[in-house]
Amino acid sequence: MTQNFTATPAPAARVNPPPPIAANDLKSVVNGVVIHYHEIALKLGNRRFFEMQLRRNILRATNHLGVKDVLRLSGRMLCLFSSSVDEEKVIAALQKVFGIAYFAPAVKLAQEVPAIKAVALNLLAGKKITSFKVETKRSQKHFPITSPQLNAEVGEHILNHFPIRVDLHQPEVILRIEIVDNYALMYTDRLEGPGGLPVGTSERAVCLISGGIDSPVAAYKMMKRGIKLIFVHFHSAPFTNAASQRNVERLVELLNSYQFRSKLYLVPFAEIQQHIVAKAAPSYRVLLYRRVMLRMAEIIAAQNHAYALVTGENVAQVASQTLVNMNVINQVATLPVLRPLAGDDKQEIIAMARRLGTFEISTEPFEDCCSLFVPPHPETRAKLPIVQEFENKLDLPALVAQTLQKTELKLIRI
Q: What residues are paired with 231 via a beta bridge?
């Protein structure tokens, strides 16, 4: 239960400089980050599984930055710093760990009131504020005083040393105290995490990534649901330059900071496109391309024990993305085809791409494989029998097998 301290502001005459933290007042003071989650707490019997995966992901994201351990506490985690920690980089890394609702640079100390009072002064020292509030959460009920009592003692101690007042409704700073397990945790500055579920708590999926604006955003949204992605990019080299491949590698490197280890398959698609151009009507080419892509993506999915395909398609954005055409494309898939951007407005997608940092890469000039041999008037309401008639003229099993043999696999790690 959270209680708030209400007190009469201290007069300025009572102000004294805050004392430094003394070694005999604090036992085992360790700087770190307290981490909170929301959705994981709802998992009941599976909660430990989700917590352990979140802990592993936090360590993967931060152990090269001077984090020495991550402790699982009651309803939260504590990221412990070593003496060589790069705190700014740790904070930046935690903002990319799915499953974290919010976190805060914190002080871990003994559950002793004198120590808590001393840390309170040090946390507020140097802050140019006029108001504050003390907020205590006491999940460890063996602590000898209640949350209101601790709020009162700490608040009075602060008022004795700083010319500031208590404001319960709109304080400039909230001093948070958490009495949990065998520790007291104290912090003031709370930062938002990305939310969602830890990557690795859901199954794997294959993401078709083009290098454009949409597919990286689709990938981000799926990773936020705990899905581990394998990336597949279809290119038309040597008929197009290598810019699309370079751009996609950069995009996957950026997205990899959310899942730490990624596979990228670079599939040479030009030969298959040439066969389709020779056998099919121009208006049906893009649909045929996409059907072959799904077939190949499913083979790669089977090799990686993945259970779905992910695309950046958006309803009615281009001719191939009408509902009729999506249905025709889907006919070849046996796995679910997830389209997380299907109902999003283009400006919403662009705004998210900017926040992710993918927009600048995606808008650099390059030719993707679907822009090669694109007709001026593509079909918007394709008929499945016509599509199948064109495909019957192609030796697709042989073409697909030959292409997959030439596919390049790149492993990307944080």
A: 207, 264
User: What confidence tier does 374 reach under pLDDT thresholds 50, 70, 90?
Assistant: low
Name the token pair of 55. Answer: 């802990």
Tokens representing residue 45 in the block:
């019997």
Bridge partners (DSSP) listed for residue 298: none
- Beta strands 30-36; 76-81: pairing state: antiparallel
Residue keyed to tokens 């001077």: 66
Quickly count: other Cβ atoms within 10 Å of residue 241's Cβ.
14
If phi over 0 gives left and psi between -120 and 50 gives alpha, with beta otherwise, what is residue 227?
beta
The domains found in the chain, sorted by start residue, are 2-192 (3.30.2130.30), 204-413 (3.40.50.620)
pLDDT, tens only, 225-271: 999 999 999 998 877 777 789 999 999 999 999 999 999 999 999 99
**Buried b / exposed e along 346-376 (16+ C-beta atoms within 10 A):** eeebbebbeebebbebbeeebbbbbebbbee
User: Is 90 in a helix, a strand, or coil?
Assistant: helix
Contacts (Cβ under 8 Å, ≥6 apart) of 382:
284, 287, 324, 325, 328
Which residues does 176 contact at the CB level (< 8 Å), separation at least 6? 104, 135, 136, 137, 186, 187, 188, 190
The secondary element (H helix, E strand) that includes residue 73 is strand 67-73
Q: What is the CA radius of gyration of the chain?
A: 28
CA distance 175 to 286: 58
